[in-house]
């Protein structure tokens, strides 16, 4: 595991010309609307860099995140572990776990600029105060190749995390069956448009997951990471999930899950 973390950390900065601008207020580390999904490998790397136990990090620094798949469709999304914001590992303007920072942090903003349209990124409200988006750095060819390698590693790590915790990757939920319970959070904008704060959806999801016993099951799995045998089993699992990830279809599976009461059942999504 140690050699894997060393390789991972080296790739994070290899051939990169990017550094956070001095004038940046570290919006990406503080802004709750910018969701940072992390894998269990990310959590292990943070544990090594910080000296804290994995279960302690999971309980205090993470939350269950829900990321809508399509804009304008808030009730269908992927479940993941996310860092709480503002990030507690930001000390002043520096990341205290920089060598073991999450993949998502290491890829931003270069990967977004490499595969995305800068003009479209600038149109997004959340990025209007990001100097790294407003004045992007150059991305050399070798760095582009490295970013692609890191992205492949990220896919494998997320695939492993999903399978370990949820038994499927990605773990897609259709929350429309419980939407009525969250409608009290709807607000009307000045333009008369109905808006539902994403926090309300995640709070509702966490509440029902706890009632159904799912959060407790996931916490029990996380406790295993602080035991040698549990970590050994996880790394053994990585060997075969990496192979599965290589052949996995990158689009969403035809099956999502939906709540009936506080229990989850599989449903077939319409394509």
Which key terms come to mind for this protein?
271 residues; alpha+beta; 6-stranded mixed beta sheet; two-stranded antiparallel sheet; 17% strand
Task: Characterize the structure shown.
This protein is an alpha+beta fold and 271 residues long. The protein has one domain (2-268). It is 46% helix and 17% strand. The chain is built from twelve helices and ten strands. The protein has helices at 2-13, 27-30, 40-50, 54-61, 103-107, 110-115, 118-123, 131-134, 141-166, 198-211, 214-223, 228-247, and strands spanning 37-38, 62-70, 73-83, 90-91, 94-95, 172-174, 187-188, 194-195, 255-260, 263-268. Helix 9 crosses helix 12. The longest helix has 26 residues, at 141-166. 27% of the residues are buried. The model has no long low-confidence stretch (mean pLDDT 88).
Total helical elements: 12
Order of helices and strands: HHEHHEEEEHHHHHEEEHHHEE
- Sketch the major β-sheet: 6 strands, mixed
From the spread of the alpha carbons, the general shape counts as globular
Structural class: alpha+beta
Report the count of strand segments: 10
Mean pLDDT: 88
Total separate domains = 1
Helix amount, in percent? 40-55%
Strand content: 15-25%
Uncertain runs are: none
Q: Identify the quaternary structure here.
A: single chain
Alpha-carbon distance between the two ends = 40 Å
Rg, please? 19 Å
């Amino acid at each position: 595991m140690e050699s894997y973390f060393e390789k991972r950390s080296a790739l994070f900065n290899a051939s990169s010309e990017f550094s956070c601008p001095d004038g940046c207020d570290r919006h990406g580390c503080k802004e709750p609307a910018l969701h940072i999904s992390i894998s269990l490998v990310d959590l292990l790397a943070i544990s090594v860099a910080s000296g804290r136990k994995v279960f302690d990090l999971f309980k205090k620094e993470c939350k269950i995140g829900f990321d809508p798949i399509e804009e304008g469709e808030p009730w269908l999304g992927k479940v993941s572990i996310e860092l709480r914001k503002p990030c507690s590992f930001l000390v002043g303007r520096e990341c205290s776990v920089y060598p073991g920072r999450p993949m998502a942090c290491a890829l931003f903003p270069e990967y977004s600029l490499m595969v995305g349209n800068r003009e479209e990124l600038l149109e997004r409200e959340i990025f209007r105060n990001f100097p790294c988006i407003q004045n992007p750095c150059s991305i050399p060819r070798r760095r582009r190749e490295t970013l692609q390698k890191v992205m492949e590693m990220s896919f494998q790590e997320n695939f492993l995390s999903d399978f370990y915790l949820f038994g499927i990757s990605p773990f897609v939920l259709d929350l429309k069956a419980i939407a009525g319970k969250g409608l009290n959070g709807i607000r009307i904008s000045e333009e008369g448009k109905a808006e539902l704060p994403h926090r309300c959806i995640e709070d509702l999801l966490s509440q029902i997951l706890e009632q159904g016993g799912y959060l407790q099951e996931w916490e029990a799995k996380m406790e295993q990471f602080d035991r040698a045998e549990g970590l050994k089993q996880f790394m053994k699992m990585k060997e075969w999930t990496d192979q599965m990830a290589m052949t996995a279809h990158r689009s969403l599976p035809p099956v999502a899950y939906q709540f009936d009461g506080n229990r989850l059942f599989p449903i077939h999504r319409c394509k």
